[in-house]
Amino acid sequence: MPTIPPGCEVISPMMTSQFASQIRAFGRFGEWWRYKISYLFVPFYFLLPGSGADVSLALKSFVLLLGYFTAAAAFGHVINDLGDVEADEKAAKVNSCSQGGRVPALVTAVCFGVLSIMLLWLGGAPWAVFVMAFLELVLFLVYSFKPLRLKESVTGLLIDAAYAHVVPFAIATWLTFEGPVTALYAALFASAIAWQGMAGLRGIIGHQLEDLLGDKEAGLRTAVIQIGADRARRWLRYCIIPAEGLFLLATLLWALVLSPLPVLALLVYSVIWEVKRRRQTRSSQGGVDQAWAGFLDRFYREWLPLATLAAVIIAAPKFWPLLVLHLVLFHISWGSRAPGSRRAIPPAVVDHLFTRVEKKGGIFEVEGCYLTSQLTTRTDINIILSAWIDGAQASAELAYAPNRFSDFYRKYHIEETPVSFTMRIKIPEAKVKVGKVELTLVAAWVNPKERVELFSKMLRFDRGQLV
To answer: In the predicted model, is pLDDT for residue 464 greater than 80?
Structure first.
């Protein structure tokens, strides 16, 4: 048996596994990998046939972009968690940087940031791409850290949309585009950037609406808290989501000159979505904003990249290896991710309880909790809680304590932790003075494939009293 030299330390496989687990916890890869990375390749795929690249260069560029997107996104998530340590402690939220240590988290963030730039350098990216990449890292920092911490400002909405959507899309475009900037390409690029900006604004406003009560408890002053939840919802419904849809359609129509497949994919997908929507019960559909968000997100994640790749392969069949890579990375399920069917509802979602429902003036106050039946490594689970008053969806503020699915993200624990929540449901003014009001509380499990109603409870109130 070989001897170990003095002063040397043996690194065991267990230590390596724990280190890798900590890196995954800091980067939170499972929360965004499958849902945010795939459609960022759309401009790369779309411009590939006209770029003059051969298969080897295309594969090299694909790997470069994949590495950059992954490292930059991980950098942003670690930086965001580092900036939220104090706020998450006040709101009793689980923060990976609190659990794993701030110094290791900071070192991890620096490594991801350096890796993202090194990948671009190794790939021979043009100087404009480096400028945009540095800009993205700077946006992460000014968004999360003091003295600016633009996260707690209305400007933070634009910053979030820029680093999460606009800049990555621009990098993928600039890295692939070859040739003169014609009027067609200028219009196509402008509409695509506007589309991504609206998509980013929808995402961050929706996220802040979900975290509204928790952010208030933590003393944060996010944009939604400053402008008000009702106004933010009106922005989404009447401005941002319609603008996102129009800019998406404009982008696809401009792209008709190169290929009709993305537009055809949108038409077919819309028909399929509408047929499925009509088969659902009203209570399981969610609100208008949620329905449109689900419609757009699934099209971006699943349909648009594949339609674009199909157009590429029709124009240049030699690029078929990219289709194989895309399917392996983003569409084939690995590990513990269960298929999306009603019989595959995971045992990790059980025992929904609404423990208290009380009417106070123009507000319904609801408290509840749910338990998990076993440790799970799944990260594609999302439970949507909604409220309906006399058959119409009502505006509801939610807060989770200690954290939504907090135990899902803990690698090691022995006892289950109940995840509790509170809801404040605003009663429409026309219903406040009405003696009898019917409240329906709905809990639905949503994964990338479908929405399945788990629990529905109808309560009737007469003159403020539960009957």
So the answer is: no
Q: Among 124, 206, 125, which Cα is nearest to 164's?
A: 206
Which amino acid is residue 88, in one-letter code?
D
- The amino acid occupying position 45 is Y
> Is 9 strand, coil or helix?
coil
CB count within 10 Å of CB 6 equals 5
- Distance CA(418)–CA(334), nearest Å, equals 28
β-bridge pairing 451-462 and 465-466: antiparallel
Report whether 362 contacts 426 (CB < 8 A).
yes
Q: Give me the helices (H) in 211-315, please.
A: 212-217, 223-227, 229-235, 241-254, 261-279, 288-298, 304-315
The tokens describing 184, both together, are 């067609």
> Do the beta carbons of residue 428 and residue 112 sit within 8 Å?
no
The side-by-side arrangement of strands in the sheet containing 436-446 is: 392-393, 382-389, 436-446, 451-462, 465-466
* Residue recorded with tokens 């240049």: 316
Cα separation of 222 and 361, whole Å?
27
Cβ atoms of residues 388 and 201 within 8 Å: no
Which residues are bridge partners to 354 per DSSP? 368
| Average of per-residue pLDDT across 187-210 | 90
251 Cβ contact list (under 8 Å, min separation 6): 188, 191, 192, 195
List pLDDT tens digits, range 414-432. Answer: 344 556 778 888 887 767 6
201 in Cβ contact with 154 (< 8 Å): no
The whole-number pLDDT of residue 364 equals 83
Q: What is the mean pLDDT of the chain?
A: 77
Whole-number Å distance between alpha carbons of 426 and 308: 43
333-387 pLDDT tens trace: 443 333 333 334 444 444 456 667 887 777 888 877 765 443 344 444 566 777 8
Instruction: Select the more confidently predicted residue: 250 or 405.
Output: 250
DSSP line for 433-458: T-SEEEEEEEEEEE-SS-EEEEEEEE
